[in-house]
Amino acid sequence: MSLDTSRPSAARAYDYFLGGHSNFAADREFADQVKAIAPSVPNVARLNRNFLRRAVRYCLDQGIRQFLDLGSGIPTVGNTHQIAADAHADARVVYVDNEPVAFHHSRGLLEEHPDATIIQADMRDREHVLSHPETRRLLDFDEPVALLVIGVLLYLPDPEPAELIRGYREHLAPGSLLAVSTLTDEPAGTALREEVQRLRAAYAEAGEPVHPRDHADILPWFDGLDLVEPGLVTLPEWRCDDPAEAFDVAAPLGYGAVARVP
């Protein structure tokens, strides 16, 4: 595996924020710089991971046993296959990520999990993802699938998020579920908005610009789908099982929703 570890990676910085170990000195230095100018960012990462956990459990409660996780990132505690396997041993998971460290670490992690795999691909290359032998081995698109797009669409400029979701949605059977989370600063106060502006500048300088979005920007991504209650809301508002999350300083910095294919 050939890696340029001298340049920071957003995926590896996210792993560091979550307390993972699949990161390098450049990633930790960059992440520490981000924390210095935007101290709420690690909280956003944790809220986002907690939303993933609740969304996966909801999908399981609805009878879904197969998951396609786009832009899955570095294998850190609380990944989709771990959450699913805790509840249903027969759950099947296909991760998709283009980041070399995410791919190679996940592949090693999943060697003892025959019902979970990762493919190295750009998630925007829908045909490659869906026709990949590993995808075809584990997922049956004639049956409902949970499509997870968690904390990754902030890296795509418009109109790519809507196009990506619409393209995958065409391949999902009725009853499938889509879970999405992304960055926002719309409900935030002045101090948090200033943090987000500093965050955007830091990530742009690192070559990985991010795009916070308002509720009105995100809602059309779910056109043609049925939003699950409570709809598109801040992350702690989506079926949260920990009341303390509502008071987290980073609570206004993420939107999330789950929607059903009719």
Automatic annotation (TrEMBL):
<dbReference type="GO" id="GO:0032259">
    <property type="term" value="P:methylation"/>
</dbReference>
<dbReference type="Pfam" id="PF04672">
    <property type="entry name" value="Methyltransf_19"/>
</dbReference>
<dbReference type="InterPro" id="IPR029063">
    <property type="entry name" value="SAM-dependent_MTases_sf"/>
</dbReference>
<dbReference type="InterPro" id="IPR006764">
    <property type="entry name" value="SAM_dep_MeTrfase_SAV2177_type"/>
</dbReference>
<protein>
    <submittedName>
        <fullName>S-adenosyl methyltransferase</fullName>
    </submittedName>
</protein>
<keyword id="KW-0808">Transferase</keyword>
<keyword id="KW-0489">Methyltransferase</keyword>
<dbReference type="GO" id="GO:0008168">
    <property type="term" value="F:methyltransferase activity"/>
</dbReference>
